[in-house]
Amino acid sequence: MAEILYGRPVAEAITAELTERAAALAGSCVEPGLAIIRLGENNSDVAYEQAALKRCARVGIKTRLFHLGADAAQSELLRAIEEVNCDEAIHGCLMFRPLPGQLDERAACETLSPDKDVDGITGPSMEGVFSGTGHGFVPCTARSCLEILDYYGIPIQGKRAVVIGRSLVIGRPAAMLLLARDATVTICHSRTPALPNICREADILIAAAGRPGLVGAGCFNPGQVVIDVGINTTPGGICGDVCFEEAENRVRAVTPVPGGVGAVTTAVLCKHVIEAAERRLKQRN
Q1: Whole-angstrom Cα distance, residue 259 to residue 227?
Q2: Can you tell me the distance from the alpha carbon of 233 to that of 212, in angstroms, rounded to the nearest whole number?
Q3: What pLDDT is recorded for position 132?
Q4: β-pair partners for 117
Q5: What is the structure's pLDDT at 6?
Q6: Is the overall model pTM greater than 0.90, yes or no?
Q7: In whole angstroms, what is the distance from residue 196 CA to residue 32 CA?
Q8: 26-59, pLDDT tens digit by residue?
Q9: pLDDT for res 136
Q10: Are 190 and 209 in contact (CB under 8 A)?
Q11: Do residues 57 and 29 make contact, with C-beta atoms less than 8 angstroms apart?
């Protein structure tokens, strides 16, 4: 039977560390601040925002909300982003995406100050991920995958890793993080021929394709660690990209959905806000 890699203890450990760092910042008269920009009332966005607000309150991060209608004009969104850029009390910004279809998402992302981009959506942040320079911030969900591996003591160096998913939000940055830790990485996707054969070779398998049940019994091996990033709403409820019941009898360890990677993401978001505040303080001094 596989070890279940729950996200909650990982998030709690991160939160405990961040509370101390936030207190240290307060001793230097710095109150970390996060802005959240949300357009419309998408249920998953609202749920994530509520979770983020609770986590920020526990850590000691002040929050400011920018709620715009789903029919907002580009100019309205850009004004909100510019307000975030100019507010010295804000150290980081989370903007929910995808944006409504009438908006230019790329222009919106590039308007945000890279120093306040705590979710890896601007060009400089992505450049930092892919160049390995460490500049900017990695997308929170991608970093959450490695936080889980590290918390449970799962080695990365020298391991064969397979990432299913090629988005700039999770798949590609997660692959780059693994590569930076000396894993040998293969990026696959839903159209990869003979996908199960490639997956079976992995020591670490990260599923982030957004396809419920894509990763089944033929993808596993007994020594494997499986990180399921997928959060899919189906008639039967919320499920991941991995067939959990098939994985737990065939692999070494697996994350559940819900209760796995998603539970860590708000903690990583807070971690990035604290890091941004610490960077600002260092520059000031």
Answers
A1: 12
A2: 8
A3: 79
A4: 93
A5: 98
A6: yes
A7: 45
A8: 999 999 999 999 999 999 899 999 999 999 999 9
A9: 86
A10: yes
A11: no
Residue 105: how many CA atoms within 13 Å on its side-chain side? 10
* Pairing mode, strands 204-207 and 225-228: parallel
Domains of the chain: 29-114+265-285 (3.40.50.10860), 140-254 (3.40.50.720)
Low-confidence ranges of the chain (pLDDT < 50): none
Radius of gyration of the chain, Cα coordinates, nearest whole angstrom = 19
End-to-end CA distance of the chain: 52
What tokens does 37 get? 């920009």
Cα separations in angstroms, 215 against 145, 177, 239, 264 = 17, 22, 12, 22
Closest by CA to 208, choosing from 235, 224, 232, is: 232
Place of tokens 């279940």: 4
With contact defined as beta carbons under 8 Å apart, do 185 and 175 qualify? yes
DSSP per-residue letters across 148-202: HHHHTT---TT-EEEEE---TTTHHHHHHHHHHTT-EEEEE-TT-TTHHHHHHT-
3-state secondary structure of 206: strand
Buried b / exposed e along 113-131 (16+ C-beta atoms within 10 A): ebbbbbbbbbebbbebbee
- C-alpha dist (Å) from residue 233 to 181, 213, 283: 33, 12, 44
The confidence score (pLDDT) of residue 234 equals 87
- Say how far apart CA 215 and CA 229 lie, in whole Å: 12
